[in-house]
Specification:
Length: 260
C-alpha cells in the first residue's frame, strides 16, 4: 500500500525538499505537491519529470478557500486518503523583512501574512481532515502499540519565533502573531481530529533556521544555518517518531518540546 503525503507549498525551500526526501527514501511513496504557480515552479517541474508516476502537482494558492476545496475533491477522487499532510507554505512579511517596530505595521501586511501562515493551514485541516483517517503505517508513525499504528499525521510548519514564552526581542509582529495563532490552530485541530476511532496526530514543527529565500535577509547573523536536506531529514525523523501522545505539541527539528 502506498504512503501518500500532501505537501502544501512545495515550489521552493522546505516544501520542495520534503517532496525530494520523501520520494528518495521510500519507493512506495506517493506525493501530492501543491503550489500557487505550477508553471513557474521550475525545480518542482524538474522533479516531476523524473517521478511522473509518484509526484502529482496541483495548483493551490493557500489564501483561496475555493482552491482548497477543489484540491480536496481532487485528492478524494484520486487517492481516497492521506497518510501525511504538511502545511509548509509561509511568508515572513510581504516586504520580505519582518517589522522592526510598530511604525512598520500595516493592516494589509498583517492580513496577507495571517491568511497565508494561519488561515490557509487551518482550512486545509477542515477540508482534508476527513481523508486523514487511515494512515497505512507502511512508513513513519512508529509505535509499539498496534492501536496507534494506523494513525495519520497533520504537520503545520511553525517557527520558534511563534512561541510567546520564547519572545524576548519583540518585532516581526505579522510573522510572530501568525505562527503563534497557527500553534493555537494546531492545538485545536489536535483536539477535534483526535476524537473518535480514527485519530489524527496534529503537531507544529520548527525546522531550525534553514537556508531558504524566507530567511535569506538574515543569513549573515546565523552561525548554524541548516541546509534544507538536513532540516527535512531531522523533521522526518521527528514525524516518524510521533504517537498519539504527541498530538497538539510544538516540537523543534531535534524533538525538543517548545513552550507555546
Ligand atoms: N527558512 C527558515 O529558516 C524557517 C524557519 C522557521 C520556520 N520556517 C517555516 O517553514 C515553512 C517553509 O519556509 P521556507 O523557508 O521553505 O520558505 P521559502 O523558501 O520562502 O518558501 C515559501 C513557500 O511558500 C509558498 N507560498 C507563499 N505564499 C503562498 C500562497 N499564498 N499560496 C501557496 N504557496 C505560498 C511559496 O510559493 P511561491 O514559490 O509561489 O512563492 C514557497 O513555496 C514556512 O511556513 C516558514 O514560516 C522557515
Amino acid at each position: 500500500m502506498s504512503f501518500i503525503t500532501l505537501i502544501q507549498g512545495a515550489s521552493r525551500g522546505i516544501g520542495l525538499q520534503f517532496c525530494r526526501s520523501l520520494l528518495a527514501r521510500d519507493p512506495g511513496a506517493v506525493v501530492i505537491a501543491t503550489c500557487r504557480n505550477p508553471d513557474g515552479a521550475t525545480d518542482l517541474k524538474e522533479l516531476q519529470s523524473k517521478e511522473s508516476n509518484r509526484l502529482h502537482v496541483c495548483k493551490l494558492d493557500i489564501t483561496n478557500e475555493q482552491q482548497i476545496v477543489s484540491t480536496s475533491e481532487f485528492v478524494k477522487e484520486n487517492f481516497g486518503k492521506l497518510d501525511l499532510l504538511i502545511n509548509s507554505a509561509g511568508m515572513l512579511h510581504p516586504s520580505g523583512k519582518g517589522e522592526t517596530s510598530l511604525r512598520d505595521v500595516s493592516m494589509e501586511a498583517l492580513t496577507l501574512t495571517m491568511q497565508t501562515n494561519t488561515f490557509g493551514p487551518l482550512l486545509m485541516g477542515k477540508y482534508f481532515g476527513p481523508f486523514l483517517t487511515k494512515g497505512s503505517g507502511s512508513v513513519g508513525v512508529q509505535s509499539s502499540d498496534p492501536k496507534q499504528r494506523h494513525t495519520a499525521v497533520l504537520v503545520n510548519m511553525s517557527a520558534k519565533v511563534g512561541s510567546i514564552t520564547d519572545n524576548g526581542l519583540g518585532g516581526w509582529y505579522s510573522y510572530r502573531m501568525s505562527k503563534s495563532a497557527l500553534n493555537m490552530a494546531t492545538k485545536n485541530l489536535s483536539i477535534e481530529l483526535g476524537r473518535g476511532k480514527n485519530k489524527v496526530i496534529c503537531v507544529s514543527l520548527h525546522p531550525g533556521t534553514v537556508d531558504t529565500d524566507l530567511s535569506r535577509p538574515y543569513h549573515k547573523n546565523v552561525p548554524n544555518l541548516f541546509s534544507t536536506e538536513y532540516s527535512v531529514n531531522c523533521l522526518l525523523s521527528v514525524i516518524d517518531s510521533l504517537t498519539v501522545a504527541d498530538t497538539g505539541k510544538f516540537l523543534t527539528y531535534d524533538r525538543t518540546v517548545m513552550a507555546y
